[in-house]
Amino acid sequence: MHPNPQFRWEDRDALRGFVTEIGFGALFAATPDGPRVAHVPTVFLDDATLGFHVARGNGIARHLDGATALYVVQGPEAYISPDWYGMEDQVPTWNYLAVELEGQVRKMEREQLVEQIDRLSGVHEARLAPKPTWTPAKMTPGLVDKMLGAITGYTLEITAWRGTKKLGQNKPAAARNAAADALEMAGNRAMAHLMREMPL
């Protein structure tokens, strides 16, 4: 994570909310074949445990059970031109939000995998309301069980939380707001909004 303490993001509830909202990230692990990464959707199973799954054919799958892994979620990001600050002697930088979760990976039993898939789809289907909710009951009988055979479920028991919230808080408010205005004009409304509205 960024070494500047001004950019540390340590609010555990906010970190958990960010990871929940994005719902997708990169899981890194060292393997005998070298470092590997899987891009996975996740869902919190409790306050400090993530559930996820990968395809059985994914090269990382056979090395995950018992491994220490790092899960990374990235949010809005933006290049910041020094011209936008209205200050002399500035340099280009990048603003971004990111969370790293480190922990131990454990393989799930099949029943846990079914619960994890149901919870994951339930969270995201709820966001699509008023669309009628999809459930496995809409599938041809037996097909879900067959498809579950192609994936393996895991938990990540989180032992370390690290967050970076780099939104220009090391600049005067007028300079930060000027950069946010320029970003919005350039089409990056998400980062402009965060720079103006997110608690620093």
Automatic annotation (TrEMBL):
It holds the Pfam family FMN_bind_2. InterPro entries: Split_barrel_FMN-bd, TR_PAI2-type. This is FMN-binding negative transcriptional regulator. It comes from Sphingomonas cavernae.
